[in-house]
Amino acid sequence: MQPTQLEPHPEGGKFREVFRSIHSVDSQNLGRRSALTHIYFQLDHGEVSAFHKVSSEEVWNLYKGEGLKLYQWDGESDQVEVIELSEAANQYCHVVPAHHWQAAEPLGDSTLVGCSVAPGFEFQDFTLLRDCCSLAEQLKQKQPKLAYLVVDR
């Protein structure tokens, strides 16, 4: 599975923006944003999407591959929610709330998903957990088995 023209993403994996709405919305917290953006996002075996957050809601949709594990954390609780997007789980999409930390890893060799963000994604609204030292350490202490999803890949 090789969608064309995918580029490395700072969180890991590869992506390509395939849609940016020509319509804009005014967000109380973000200012003026595109109403919706959508990317193709691919993770191959051994790659992860490191813990990160965006300032808008994000919908993950499974397109190809065995699936992926999507991790979601509110930044405060002791537990990290694990959502499996796969045919086996009979779940093909999931919405990550705005400002929640998220990470992902493929279940098989390669997984292609689509990620829609509304209001639209801007890199200035993107934060990697590894850049928030005390919070990154807090997650590693609460969930040491997930430390590999915090480090720079």
Automatic annotation (TrEMBL):
The organism's place on the tree of life at top rank: Bacteria
Q: For this UniProt entry, which residues form the secretion signal?
A: none
UniProt xrefs under InterPro entries: Cupin_DUF985, RmlC-like_jellyroll, RmlC_Cupin_sf, YML079W-like
DUF985 domain location: 4-128
PANTHER family in the cross-refs: DUF985 DOMAIN-CONTAINING PROTEIN, RMLC-LIKE JELLY ROLL FOLD PROTEIN
**Name of the protein in question:** DUF985 domain-containing protein
Taxonomic lineage of the native organism:
Bacteria, Pseudomonadati, Verrucomicrobiota, Verrucomicrobiia, Verrucomicrobiales
